[in-house]
Description:
Layout: E1 10-15, E2 22-26, E3 30-34, E4 39-41, E5 44-47, E6 57-62, E7 65-70, E8 76-79, E9 82-83, E10 90-92, E11 97-102, E12 105-112, E13 121-125, E14 132-136, H1 138-144, H2 151-156, E15 159-165, E16 168-173, E17 180-182, E18 185-186, E19 191-192, E20 198-201, E21 204-209, E22 212-216, E23 225-236, E24 239-251, E25 256-260, H3 267-275, E26 281-286, E27 289-290, H4 295-298, E28 302-305, H5 317-328, H6 335-348, H7 364-376, E29 382-386, H8 394-409, E30 413-417, E31 430-436, E32 442-449, H9 450-457, H10 462-469, H11 480-495
Parallel strand pairs: 3-5, 25-30, 25-31, 28-29, 29-30
Antiparallel strand pairs: 1-2, 1-12, 3-6, 4-5, 6-7, 7-10, 8-9, 8-11, 11-12, 13-22, 14-15, 15-16, 16-19, 17-18, 17-20, 20-21, 21-22, 23-24, 23-26, 26-27, 31-32
Amino acid sequence: xxxxxLFKPGELVLFEAGKEPKHYxxxxxxxxxxxxxxxxxxxxxxxxxxxxxxxxxEIKYNDGTWEFSSFETEADIxxxxxxxxxxxxxxxxxxxxIRFAGKxxxxxxxxxxxxxxxxxxxxxxLSEHGDNVTIYNEKALREIAGDPSRENELxxxxxxxxxxxxxxxxxxxxxxxxxxxxxxxRISEETPLNEYDMVIIGDTCFLYHNGSLVYxxxxxxxxxxxxxxxxxxxxxxxxxxxxxxxxxxxxEPGNMVLLLGGSGAGKTTFINAVTGYDKASATIMNGDLNVxxxxxxxxxxxxxxxxxxxxxxxxxxxDTLMNAAEMRMPASISREERExxxxxxxxxxxxxxxxxxxxxxxxxxxxxxxSIAVEYIADPSLxxxxxxxxxxxxxxxxxxxxxxxxxADEGKIVIVITHTPDRVIDLFDKVIVLAKxxxxxxxxxxxxxxxxxxxxxxxxxxxxxxxxxxxxxxGGEGRADEFIERFAALQLKxxx
Length: 496
């Protein structure tokens, strides 16, 4: 079976002035052409713009990625407001905008790498709210708004300010945990809004047009990771031994998750089951794609960094990343695109000054970052790391974990195992706690926010939580069964 037959349908959202956004499921390939009868038929997307002619551009699915190619056309073409000047294919990323500009205006399309036509779009006309618009985190509003005694908390809640001054609207990140992105780039200071800018705040996409923000509330959630492990067992001399069972949870994009548990709780077994490297009796869904059924396709979406690196000491840092790009990125990616990705990752992980050094000559912290960069080169949506801070001092560990936090802020899922979590716990969104039951089976004892974990276990630190569920012969309190049963009851009640 070819990869074409395995492809995930994508989606295009068409924006036109004065009209509601229209959703189109994206087949492969699709050619954009001029036509008054708007829509997709027989692989042609007709749009009412004469400059498009009989064929201005093409989108097609190729070996795990969506590619955009432009042809000879009178229209100017922009991807996320970057002008396309050549005919070489460009890889489309989720939430990229495609704009065709003609003499009578522009047609804008929002690209999603999944089909999510079940959500609705809304519109905010900014001028109707004065010169200052504040966008709050939804959870903060639910918990704090309307309670006069908590007004100070609302001021400090995660929020984004949009202000009108000098005849232009500006966006500023006040206190968000995951950042604010304009056309895929995270902003660090007050930034002006230009026509057709795509602003991403948390899980929400905002398209700015003519003084309004058109937004959709569930765009990024289509790539959520849904884990349902019924059982993971091994056989020794025909005797069955259950290692994991009854683990059900869902992780949203943009979350950095701590995987916590004592020795023998099944952390590594859990990771191998989730990634498909050692399958369990389980259903693992990345968006609408089953990881086990589509393992070859998912290799571009999963990055796994083991505790021990496999780097060749006699290779240069840059060559190591280029080799990784050649092995991990789809074959359809040009060498120029690979080189561009290598340069981007070198900057992201602070390895640019050492790019010509031999791997064997760089520091321990740089080596850790290089190991992570090797797996991150393919831009995976799920990133799992086993003790990435092992052997690092507190300063170096925090610097490394802050880089992982930045990866999660790009809308990725990052899962980390670390034996010293408390020195960086403020960087995590959620915590998974696995515990070894009295039957010596790894089970779910908790999944939720860090603050909720402290309240649930009535402990101040993550290390105290591990001690709480460890067996007495491991220096623990032996309360694993208690918390496993209590959390199972909570999940059952929530499902009901």
